[in-house]
Amino acid sequence: MRQLRAVIAGLDQVVVAFSGGADSALLAYVANEVLGSENVLVVTAVSSSLAGDELTDCQALADEWELNWHVVETDEMANAAYRLNDTNRCFHCKDALMDELVPIAEANAATIVLGVNLDDLDDHRPGQQAALQHGSRFPFVEAGLDKAAVRAVSHHLGLRTWDKPAAACLASRIPYGTQVSVGLLSKLDRAEAALHRLGFASLRVRHYDDTARIEVPLDALSEMVKQREAVVAAVQQAGYKYVTVDLEGLRSGNLNT
């Protein structure tokens, strides 16, 4: 924690890319505490790939912690390379985010910071390269914090996000090679939101044409079977014909394997 504070203190003014997840939430909170809200801009990018529930929680956290919060709109869908959805999709998405954040950072003589932790470096995340190319910094990496440390520090600080399930962008539910569209992202958002309302906090709905493959933690599988009829109805109402549950459970980023 001491090292994280030192890294942030050395930046003077920052623009925090804020998705509302455990990582960006801790980064925004500590930056606000160390530098003061007048030196911290917390920015959430809104696009069709952001789940509606996540945007709502971003605003709630900003209100709770008195963050200097701003919303920008990104249009990664305008980029044919992003819609193509090859293994570099994340690069194009983050590049679109940087197009919005860089002018804000330059106008405030600030540094863009992202909640990338040490564990993220082991996964296929080309968006990190896009961020680095635009001069962004990763304070957690510089301070030597992995995901477990991020959660432990968040818990120590009393942040309600300490155990918040990971929630990657909706496009990550679409297998590489399947074209991304606004309609498809909206369908995934509706399906996952409906399952959240049934009590499943941590999940992924993977898209396979007219089939939805649901991933939940292994200890939630029995509850999903117990609520089988409600689960099927919710996902079919979102637009899928077939509903399946993955017996291997939830594996974040498993489409990268």
A few lines on this structure:
The protein has 257 residues and is α/β, with parallel strands linked by helices. It is 45% helix and 13% strand.
Entry keywords:
257 residues; alpha/beta; four-stranded parallel beta sheet; three-stranded mixed beta sheet; 11 helices; 7 strands; globular
Describe the structure in your own words.
- The strands form two sheets. Strands 3-2-1-4 form a four-stranded parallel sheet, with helices on both faces.
- It contains eleven helices and seven strands.
- It is α/β, with parallel strands linked by helices and about 260 residues long.
- The two termini are about 35 Å apart.
- Strand 2, helix 3 and strand 3 (about 70-75) form a beta-alpha-beta unit.
- Helix 9 (about 180-195) runs antiparallel to helix 11.
Number of strands: 7
Q: Trace the largest sheet across and list its strands.
A: 3-2-1-4
Helix vs. strand class: alpha/beta
First-last Cα distance: 33 Å
Q: Tell me the strand percentage band.
A: 5-15%
Helical segment tally? 11
Give the low-pLDDT segments. none
**Percent of residues in helical segments?**
40-55%
Compile the SSE list and pairings.
Elements lengths: L1 H8 L4 E4 L4 H14 L4 E7 L5 H14 L3 E5 L6 H5 L4 H19 L3 E3 L13 H7 L5 H5 L3 H11 L24 H16 L6 E5 L2 E5 L5 H6 L1 H11 L3 E4 L12
Parallel strand pairs: 1-2, 1-4, 2-3, 6-7
Antiparallel strand pairs: 5-6
Helix pairs in contact: 1-2, 5-6, 9-11
